Amino acid sequence: xxxxxxxxxxxxxxxxxxxxxxxxxxxxxxxxxxxxxxxxxxxxxxxxxxxxxxxxxxxxxxxxxxxxxxxxxxxxxxxxxxxxxxxxxxxxxxxxxxxxxxxxxxxxxxxxxxxxxxxxxxxxxxxxxxxxxxxxxxxxxxxxxxxxxxxxxxxxxxxxxxxxxxxxxxxxxxxxx
Length: 177
Hints:
Helix 5 (81-87) runs antiparallel to helix 6 (93-106). The longest helix has 17 residues, at 32-48. The chain folds into two domains: 12-75, Leucine-rich Repeat Variant (Alpha Horseshoe), CATH 1.25.10; 78-177, no CATH class. It has 177 residues and is mostly helical. Helix content is 67%, strand content 0%. The chain is elongated, with a radius of gyration of 18 Å. It contains ten helices and no strands.
């Protein structure tokens, strides 16, 4: 399984290749076709080297971060699950949302890691919202009853983080059976 560099800090724009600098410049274009072309190039670049898109997420430029996330989720790569889970608590709501969408696009293989994350991390409203969204989209109708207590806890901020973690733990035990 690949792991992706999550070192804190900013990527130095001077370190980008000339091709990447052109892509980034075109992401800021007012002309729609240039922007779309830049996103497509970013997606192709990410297919060859996903780490390059992960590195762009360290940028201070929110447009670059947003476009990098949009390109990353097109990969639908299970090795990105831990990375997307980390971004469910990003400071920027658009990054959190795209991260949740990435997990949804990866599919049902992201359910158990998502629930485990609830047990590992401190209680966060952002994490709860993301997990609720992901599970609501990925569970199928005949599983609803199994997930009901966790979904109810995630959707109600008056329910303590400890109670949500208890529901998550119980659900993981049921899923192992």
